[in-house]
Amino acid sequence: MNVATSQEMREIDRRTIEEFGVPSLILMENAATRVVETLAQRRPTLRGARVAIVCGKGNNGGDGLAIARHLAVRFHARVTVWMIAPDPGALSPDAAANLEMAEKFGLTIHWIADGVSVELGQSLASSDIVIDALLGTGFRGALEGGGASAVEAINAAGSAGAYVVAVDIPSGAEADTGNVNGPAVRAAITVTFALPKIGLLLFPAAELAGEVIVGEIGTPPALLEGVRARATSAADVAQWIPARINGRDSNKGKFGHVTVFAGSAGLIGAAALSAESAARMGSGLVTLAVPEGLLTAAMSVANPVVMTAGLPQTPKQTFSSRALDDALALAEKGTAAAIGPGLGGVKDEDLQKFVREFVARCPVPLVIDADALNVLSLEPDRGASLVRGRKAATVLTPHPGEMGRLLGIETAQVQERRLEHVRHAAETYGCAVLLKGSRTLIATPDGRLTINTTSNPGMATGGAGDVLTGVIATLLGQKLAAGDAAAAGAYAHGLAGDLAVLSLGGAAGLIAKDIVDYLPKAIGKCQLESDGIISGS
Ligand SMILES: NC(=O)C1=CN([C@@H]2O[C@H](COP(=O)(O)OP(=O)(O)OC[C@H]3O[C@@H](n4cnc5c(N)ncnc54)[C@H](O)[C@@H]3O)[C@@H](O)[C@H]2O)[C@H](O)CC1
Ligand SMILES: [K+]
To answer: Each residue's pLDDT tens digit in the chain (537 positions)?
Structure first.
């Protein structure tokens, strides 16, 4: 599913209006109709209901005024409009046009420029339905003054039982970041137009939006295809994977062969988890390479389907640069590799040398994770040029701390502008970059962005990242493009975690191995959803 930034949406609207001749007032009318239809579906008692509509001075407020008119005309709703604006002169042209219509239809309209209004609070609290048409995609920053008190009144009414509907996006939330920097509306449902705005998929806005409905408003479909961001769907995953693993002439060789370079003393479990997850994700063959002194340990903890190899090690039992030739030869036998989980000892110069050389020369598609990322970020410029120089596809899978080190910034800075930083990293390192989080983001150097909507807080558990590494390596080894492998991998991994939590009946006790075990179910569910046999969650 495509998702839009506010700027892309403005541009799509402009082209709809100028190139396709659809007047902007028609778009607004369609937007209002979609909200009213949704309300009619969700609230069987809409006829005669008490509805308060809070409108701002921009086009979001214009939508609200059009909604007010339709509710009054078609459903005889008892509508009160609250304009949070100084006077009609402050309104956008389309909002002004709708104000004029609303006035001529005899609707009740109150004006509050700023400050707290007792009447507003009372009106909202005694309404069955409250419509938030205060601010839409034009909003940035934090709400203050009259807008902030209006939002507080809407939320108080919502807490008291009113059904709160947000128009396009909950007011106070930023459409491009999902950030909430001050008071923001908590809605039961959000009706957004043409395409979901990126912010609706990102936290905390995603949580405030409630159920998100996308209303078609007459935008030419071709214009909706031109946006840069998307959210992965089950159908995407099903489409990307089965062509490679469900062919009639299936054989082991077709499923790919992943080689995982991982593990150090005390961290052999990370290696075993990555390898097993590659097997569960459908890799035909999996080889786990560990420092040679840990080979026996690896063989005892790894799943028996996993082949193992021991490579020359440093005195601290991490890979030595002497392991390089063997490692490259092993990698070359497979269709994709992964390096990083549990490597340990990032300060060890011999390990650093191994990682740098391996990354530069590994001839097959490669996932770089965890300590391998930390080695690269010891000298970020050198790390970036090593990755950029690679001949085969690459996916980096940093968590926010690792991303900060890769870019030479603080973790908090990463989290404040996740979209921006993941895109920047993809450009800098010239490869697909997956930034982990409650909404994992994937960027590719061509500027495309994917938002992952599966996963749950139970997955914030040791080893979950190692599992993801094995999953993505499998998809790379089945010849998916780097961005698709990362997107499909994040989706399947998150869904496996969701299914595991459902099955366990709670999130707290989820362990990484559960994610591994639910991978087959997750992929199966994607296929069933894609075939229309079951509906999406
Ligand atoms: N295709 C579509 O999606 C359509 C959407 N429509 C609706 O139009 C709005 C966007 O309208 P716009 O006039 O651009 O912006 P807003 O209504 O969100 O108003 C912005 C308003 O707020 C001011 N502002 C910005 N930041 C702040 C702040 N921190 N504090 C206070 N005020 C702020 C800004 O200066 C503007 O005056 C979209 O969401 C849809 O609802 C169309 O109706 C149809 C097509
Ligand atoms: K709104």
So the answer is: 999 999 999 999 999 999 999 999 999 999 999 999 999 999 999 999 999 999 999 999 999 999 999 999 999 999 999 999 999 999 999 999 999 999 999 999 999 987 668 899 999 999 999 999 999 999 999 999 999 999 999 999 999 999 999 999 999 999 999 999 999 999 999 999 999 999 999 999 999 999 999 999 999 999 999 999 999 999 999 999 855 445 556 666 779 999 999 999 999 999 999 999 999 999 999 999 999 999 999 999 999 999 999 999 999 999 999 999 999 999 999 999 999 999 998 899 999 999 999 999 999 999 999 999 999 999 999 999 999 999 999 999 999 999 999 999 999 999 999 999 999 999 999 999 999 999 999 999 999 999 999 999 999 999 999 999 999 999 999 999 999 999 999 999 999 999 999 999 999 999 999 999 999 999 999 999 998 999 876
Give this prediction's pTM.
0.94
Based on the fold, state whether residues 207 and 256 are members of the same structural domain. no
Strand order in the sheet with 129-133: 108-111, 78-83, 50-55, 129-133, 163-167, 189-193, 211-215
What 3-state class would DSSP assign to 207? helix
Residues, the chain? 537
Q: Are residues 364 and 256 in the same domain?
A: yes
Residues 199 and 339 in one domain: no
CB-ligand 1 contact for 60 (6 Å cutoff)? yes
Residues 290 and 141 in one domain: no
Q: What is the CATH number of the domain that holds 182?
A: 3.40.50.10260
Q: Tell me the C-alpha distance between 435 and 344, whole Å.
A: 21
Sign of CA dihedral 411, 416, 419, 421: negative
204 and 160 both lie in a single domain: yes
Quote the Cα angle for 466-431-282, to 5°. Answer: 40
Q: Closest ligand 1 atom, CA of 94?
A: 43
Answer yes or no: is 234 within a domain. Answer: no
Do 388 and 272 lie in a common domain? yes
User: Which of 26, 137, 179, 224 to mutate to test ligand 1, by most ligand atoms within 8 A of the CB atom?
Assistant: 137
Print the domain residue range for 178.
2-227
Residue 237 located in a structural domain: no
**What domain count does the chain have?**
2
Task: Give domain status of residue 407, yes or no.
Answer: yes
Q: Ligand 1, from 20, 193, 219, 224: best to mutate by most atoms within 8 Å of Cβ? A: 193
Judgement on whether residues 27 and 143 belong to the same structural domain of the protein: yes
Q: What is d(CA 420, CA 404) in angstroms, rounded to the nearest whole number?
A: 12
